[in-house]
Request: fold
Amino acid sequence: MTDKGEKTAVRGLEGVIASETRIGMVDGVNGKLYYAGYEIDELAEQVSFEEVVFLLWHDRLPAEKELLAFRDQLVREMTLPPALQDWFRRIPADLHPMVVLRSAVSDLALFDPEAADNSAAATQRKAIRLVAKIPTIIAGIHRMRQGLDLPAPDLSQGIAFNFLRMFLGSDPSPYDAETMDLVLVLHADHGFNASTFSARVTASTLADIYGAVTSAIATLQGPLHGGANQRVMEMLTEIGDSGDVADYIDGLLAQGKRIMGFGHRVYKVQDPRARHLRKRAGQVCREDEGCTYFKMSETIEEKTLQEKGIYPNVDFYSATVQHALGIPVAYYTTVFAVSRIAGWSAHVMEQLADNRLIRPRAQFTGKYPRKFTPRSQRPEGGEK
Ligand code: SDX
Reply:
């Protein structure tokens, strides 16, 4: 606030409370994350991704029978319109998977007769289609690019198992399916992160959920947000070639560069999700290369804490875990989207249920009013 009582702009809306929510809470001081009031440390390795989707949408954990019915409803929707599958075959093979995902989600609206219906019931049905079809779209991109067919989902399994089955072309081991499920649980929601806020801004104009999720996917791709996990693996690969972690990190810091996978706008202590991913990364690094990356990651964590006093965020060890699951680097951020559609859709439903157009103010810093000069009277060099 200036001394004239004018409000001053808050860069990046840092610390600004934009709205209320009952969906998730990020406690940056104590390093805790809550999904609808349940602490992530209690949920991780205890619940399935489908349970988390249900919890974020309905503000309660499902009974066993409800969960099975919900999972069945989701997995039966894991098919794609044939026209979309044909489209995959025609897109340039060098497009980033997140760019293709953004377009494909936008195109899903073309095949959904309820696309423009913002009623709570229709939005929930569309949310089910999105949670179910986003993993299939990503698997479809990967399989079509290799000239391979897209396997059908196994209706007796859940989203995590079927994503790996369709993406890799064969059934995952129970442990890999459980690891993917943990990755999806840990990435599902995180307060008003940039992509979720994008979804809410779009929904607040009463645009439909397909538009809101398209906004969110475009936002997630940025390296300061979900795009960081891909850059973490690129950094590990680069260090692997050079061999010296300390030198590499010192070099980045000396250039004032950000170390991908570290730091957070809200967490000022350890991101609780990183703790679970670090543990799993240590468990899943099977073949030597995976363990090299994990050991390198631990050295980077120690060095960065010592030099900058900052901690890994969700993206840092996610890279090593995804590597161990056989996911190609270019798809790491799409895996983030497979999970975050749970939070995005919950926030769109919450926004639509008690909507207020999101429209902040700007502080104009230019000169005004300026005197207009007709073109014929402007000096050679243009008006000053
Ligand atoms: C996600 O919002 C969410 O909840 C996001 C997310 C979710 O679940 O939705 O948690 C997922 O997006 C995690 C973040 C992934 N991004 C990265 O890993 C990219 C690298 N991180 C940084 O760019 C940064 O930490 C941000 C973007 C995450 C947060 O940035 P801020 O809050 O704007 O902090 P800042 O850039 O102003 O840095 C504050 C200080 C600076 O020191 P000074 O220069 O002022 O002395 O901390 C330093 C920075 O130099 N710092 C880093 C750093 N992050 C902060 N220094 C080196 N490497 C880093 N990664």
Summary: Residues 48 and 210 are 25 Å apart (CA to CA). The first strand starts at residue 24 and ends at 27.
